[in-house]
Amino acid sequence: MNNIIVNNAVLLVIAAVAASMMMLPTAEAALYTVGDDLGWTIPPGGAATYAAWAAKHSFVVKDILVFNFSAGEDDLAVVTKEDFDTCNTTNPLYEFEEPATLQFLASDTFYFTSTLAGHCSKGQKLAIYFAPSSTDSPSPSPTSSFPLKLVSQKIMQGTRT
Asked: In what residue span(s) does the Phytocyanin domain sit (predicted)?
């Protein structure tokens, strides 16, 4: 009878450990479509449209942004803060001529716009801060100097300028 009590106690401890492990936070990335149904375009409400969209979300490292737009009718550029503030798109960090899916690997603020004439000044620009993930452990700096990962196959055609 003592063996049965001990075996039941061991099973109870194993079940408790397993249950507590299932409650640990995971490092799953959230997927966001920029602008939701609007997509990536000149917004009807100007820059406040994308700012309001971003304010509804809490972005963290490893989250993924999907930029939907029609290839040939729009584009996406990752720019510096200075270029974002002045709508200077002559020297973007990255430029994508097709819809892009990007995963962010470091905590920082990233700046996006379109390089097409007048799009940035009409509000097609977005700044997003990615906070550190609570499940991330400290790791060495990535070998890449730009902390984002190109996720979709179409993105591989993006050019670094």
From this structure: 30-132
